[in-house]
Amino acid sequence: WAKAEGRGRWAVYDPERSAADIARSALAAGLPAALDRGEFVVHYQPIVSLLDGSMIAVEALVRWAHPELGLVGPDRFIGLAEETGLIVRLGEWVLRQACRDARAWHREFPEAKLVVSVNLAARQADDPAIVDTVASALSRTGLPAELLQLELTESAVMGTAGEPLRSLYRLADLGVRLAIDDFGTGYSNLVYLRRLPIHCLKLAGPFVEGIRGVGDGSPPDHRDERIVDALVRLAHALELWVTAEAVETGEQAERLRALRCDTGQGRWFGPPTPAGQITARLRGGIGSGPDGGEVAG
Ligand code: C2E
Ligand code: MG
Ligand code: MG
Ligand code: MG
């Protein structure tokens, strides 16, 4: 995997090339074979109603069960997969797996109406084939379209022409939900909010971090509270749902509820887990509240 352009083809022997760079290249080189060998797994993190604590959705988060490194998080390989273009194939695999799992949950617990939320990389959203990819994932698995949500970042929504991507209108026409991920951290060109049929805004972790109750001893960051308050009002004025990401304490959950945020996601409600633990939770076996870290499975 050559980063050699511009530096000559002997760049691989460059003594200045850092160990981190080499490790990165090695990881990237291993991605296609890992996909063929079935080394990726999808974990699911609950998205919970702040009103009654019920689990209304789960976010699909991919992990690499690496034979030597153990469970590798997406922050270490999604960027690489975007650079090499593998994200299209990997993303399609995640989408299929998520639709299959959600279909199984829907079959066993139809009254739960559990939505599965899948991240779409900019490169996937930008590919016109995405509409067929999503339509075929739905028809092959039998998952009702309204139980699938697609998460896009602000920058992924806005194409280079300064217009929201055309394929997003066609995706919305399929009946799937669209969510803006990490809302408030991109270059917020709010034009897409006027035009696109968006269903949900996910408030980025950094805003939620500044939301603290009296319980943890630290003073609340009023500026973050006011930003969250304003963003929730904006969302509700447009009839959108709001999910707060990275909710880590009960005090945060309580404050966010007071600010009329609809749903929350984060360690407080449960870490990302293998599909089986979501099934157990749907059966009523596992309550909400603080719990341990993520385990492989
Ligand atoms: P994201 O979509 O914003 O996902 C939320 C991230 O917050 C996840 O990190 C999740 O594990 C983490 N998180 C959960 N609870 C807490 C908490 O209480 N506090 C904090 N600070 N963080 C929490 P993860 O799983 O490492 O994923 C990182 C990013 O990788 C995701 O951010 C998403 O952008 C990307 N990603 C993950 N899976 C996929 C995928 O299948 N396709 C694409 N395109 N991107 C993916
Ligand atoms: Mg992680
Ligand atoms: Mg996401
Ligand atoms: Mg996010």
Automatic annotation (TrEMBL):
Tell me which domain of life the UniProt entry assigns to the organism this sequence originates from. Bacteria
Q: Where are the transmembrane segments?
A: none
Q: What is this protein called?
A: Diguanylate cyclase/phosphodiesterase with PAS/PAC sensor(S)
